[in-house]
């Protein structure tokens, strides 16, 4: 499984959501740990977050949860 930014579990860029999904962790707890580590390391976590935002590809958006209307409404859909 490749590390990708989350398209659905995001607050800013989806970095924490993607890392949490990759590691199998809860994204809320990872965000709290990330903030505490950022403050504790003189904001090095902020620089790492920006680097991951730039380097991590974004996962594709989820498929729509509905069927689009038929292109020819006079024909019955099967």
Structure description:
By secondary structure, the chain is mainly alpha-helical. It has one domain (1-59). Helices cover 45% and strands 0% of the residues. The chain is built from 3 helices and no strands. The chain has helices spanning 15-23, 27-40, 44-55. The longest helix is centred in the middle third of the chain and has 14 residues, at 27-40. It starts with 14 loop residues before the first helix and ends in a 23-residue tail after the last helix.
Which descriptors would you attach to this protein?
mainly alpha, 78 residues, 3 helices, 0% strand, elongated
Would you summarize the structure shown here?
With 78 residues, the chain is mainly alpha-helical. 45% of the residues lie in helices and 0% in strands.
Secondary-structure blueprint:
Blueprint: H1 15-23, H2 27-40, H3 44-55
Helix pairs in contact: 1-2
Average of per-residue pLDDT values:
87
Number of domains: 1
Number of helices: 3
Compressed to H and E, one letter per element, the order equals HHH
Structural class: mainly alpha
Intertermini distance: 37 Å
According to DSSP, the number of beta strands is 0
- Ranges where pLDDT stays below 50 over 5 or more residues in a row are none
Amount of beta strand = under 5%
The best one-word shape is elongated
Main beta sheet, described?
none
How much helical structure, as a percent, in the residues?
A: 40-55%
Gyration radius, in Å:
19 Å
